[in-house]
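Following up on my earlier thread - several people asked me to post the actual chain instead of describing it. Fair enough. Here it is, all 153 residues.
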Amino acid sequence: MDRTYIKVRGRWTYLYRAVDRNGHTLDVMLADQRNTAAARRFFKRAIASHGVPDKVVIDKNGANLAGLNSINAVLKFVSTGKRIKILQVKYLNNIFKQDHRFIKRITGPMQGFKSFYSAQVTPAGIETAHMIHKGQFKANHLGPAQQFAALAA
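Reply from S.P.:
Thanks for posting it. Predicted structure:
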């Protein structure tokens, strides 16, 4: 899990992204702030759609660690006590850093977005097109047309 920055109405916003060990995109979420609540919301959303992971690699950002710790606290009481192993290693998230360039290449020349909604939908569309390019839809339960239709809704 990692985040990158996108400009919306002249302010920097944070695009959270989750990628599995094979480089497949799992989830994308845009947030106004980089805090524990945003990280928790992103992790809840990713876990709801893809299940509880065995381990998560994050950078040294304290908000991400606090968000995962709160998720682990909930998992401890709700399930059989399964906890997510948290790895905070600087260089293990290089796969994310390389994957950000596909979004930055398209959003960089745009010089930001005018509305938060368009900033949410455009990177999601870019991610979907990138997922098609990576051949990720073979394992996904939604096809490309259904994924694009879900983005339009």
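The domain at 2-152 is CATH 3.30.420.10 (Nucleotidyltransferase; domain 5). That should answer part of your original question.
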